[in-house]
Specification:
The complex is a heterodimer of chains A (about 210) and B (about 220). Chain A has about 210 residues and is an all-alpha fold. Chain A is about 80% helix and about 0% strand. In chain B, helix 1 (about 5-45) runs antiparallel to helix 7, helix 3 (about 65-75) packs antiparallel against helix 4 (about 85-110) and helix 4 packs across helix 6. By secondary structure, chain B is mainly alpha-helical. Chain B has helices at about 5-45, 50-65, 65-75, 85-110, 115-125, 130-160, 170-180, 185-215. Classes of the chains: A mainly alpha (about 210), B mainly alpha (about 220).
Chain lengths: ~210, ~220
């Protein structure tokens, strides 16, 4: 593990982070309509939403990236590797986050719904002002765990040529006499990042939990 | 050529690939889960050294992406004089990843066994190994089953990563068909459906087992 190799791999860190946060942001927003459809009282929206979530989660992420990157190109939709990566990981995240939100919705105390209705709040008002903020707070630990997983899964984008950390590790390992060092270095960076973010999410969670009604 | 005749010509090759994927997942889990149990026990009731060792191994195994692990085993270990074929490399890497993740799942299960039961066993002067074997493990593993099944689905999906080390599993087979026919979309979608044919029934089964195991709670 030499400093030059470490520096070279760290050149991929901004892309790794962009990929992770881009996909997470896409998923956090996309998960909202998915969970609302999934929980709707009408089977006509509930069943397709459920099916979509199962399909998004059931196909391996690398296969989704290939479908988006290689599959769409002959149809004239040519995406850059990074766009394809964010898009692919983003739609998968939407499905996972929808399930996390569903758990969060179930965890909000029933009395909160009843109290909002008793105050005559409209349904969108109740969701956006009373239930939603609590769901976000309850969902944070699971979403953070998912985000940390996503940080590691983002390395998959290397297979479609996104120049994130593993991409540079691969370049270094091919060009240097030392094949194992660059991969071990990249692995160490991932370990440090995931240990740090796990610690960060526990701290954040402890602060947010104070404002959830039980 | 329409999609149906495309698919029927791809299907036999892809099925062979799927078989490799399933075998890889089965071996990795078959070795990884017992290893995870050992790590969980070392972490929960081993001495200080065993405990520290287990924690470090688990943090490294969980912190490192499976894809990086795969590259280290396949491209890196030959540097140290250890070369494996692509199937063995993939099995080694996924076993290590499985061991790290399942040890945390199993540890959660073992911890859910009431402390009173362990105390009662101690009062009966049972040996520590016997307490683990007859009291903690049978009950703790039951609690861990749904999560282990959920994790197994993820490992089955992770076998697709072995495409990067030229293992002829489902994705690699689909990709090579795609690169010779230039009909990537059609063959990749079929491959995706074949992954779903395993993962969706597994996920329903997991849900059923979860409901069954928690019905008396």
């Amino acid at each position: 593990m030499t400093p030059e190799v470490l520096l070279s791999i760290l050149r991929g860190l901004p892309t790794t982070l962009l990929l992770t946060f881009g996909a997470l942001a896409l998923g956090a927003v996309g998960g909202i309509p998915l969970v609302l459809l999934r929980r709707s009282p009408w089977a006509i929206t509930r069943i397709p939403a459920r099916l979509l979530i199962e399909v998004l989660r059931g196909i391996p992420p690398i296969v989704w990236l290939f479908i988006i990157f290689f599959g769409l190109a002959p149809m004239g939709i040519r995406l850059s590797p990074l766009t394809a990566g964010i898009l692919g990981m983003g739609v998968i995240s939407a499905a996972y986050l929808a399930e996390i939100y569903r758990g969060g919705l179930a965890a909000v105390n029933r009395g909160q719904y009843e109290a909002s209705m008793a105050l005559g709040m409209s349904s969108p008002d109740m969701m956006s002002r009373i239930i939603g903020p609590q769901v976000v707070r309850v969902s944070i630990p699971a979403a953070a765990t998912y985000g940390i997983g996503l940080l590691k899964d983002s390395s998959i984008a290397f297979t479609i040529g996104v120049n994130e950390m593993l991409y540079f590790a691969n370049v270094e390992s091919r060009s240097e006499a030392d094949a194992i060092g660059p991969f071990l270095t990249a692995g160490a960076v991932y370990v440090v990042l995931s240990v740090l973010s796990a610690w960060g999410s526990r701290t954040l969670d402890a602060r947010l939990q104070k404002r959830v009604a039980r | 050529m329409n999609v149906i005749s495309d698919w029927s010509s791809y299907f036999p090759d892809l099925l062979e690939g799927l078989l490799v994927s399933v075998q890889l997942a089965a071996i990795s889990l078959g070795l990884g889960i017992p290893l995870g149990l050992v790590l969980a026990i070392a972490n929960g009731s081993g001495g200080r050294v065993a405990r520290a060792g287990a924690i470090v191994l688990v943090e490294i195994g969980r912190g490192m992406p499976a894809l990086v692990m795969l590259q280290i085993v396949y491209f890196g270990l030959p540097d140290l004089g250890l070369s494996f074929g692509s199937f063995v490399s993939a099995a080694v890497a996924l076993t290590l990843t499985s061991a790290a993740y399942t040890s945390e799942i199993i540890r959660g299960g073992l911890q859910s066994v009431p402390a009173g039961e362990v105390e009662a066993a101690e009062a009966l002067n049972m040996a520590r190994l016997d307490i683990l074997r007859f009291i903690v493990i049978p009950q703790g593993m039951r609690v861990a089953v749904p999560s282990l099944m959920g994790f197994s689905i993820l490992i089955f999906q992770a076998t697709a990563l072995a495409y990067t080390i030229a293992l002829p599993e489902l994705l690699a087979t689909a990709y090579s068909i795609g690169s010779s026919t230039f009909r990537y979309m059609s063959v990749l979608v079929l491959a995706g459906l074949m992954y779903l044919a395993i993962t969706i029934p597994m996920s329903f089964l997991t849900e059923r087992v979860e409901m069954r195991l928690s019905r008396h709670l």
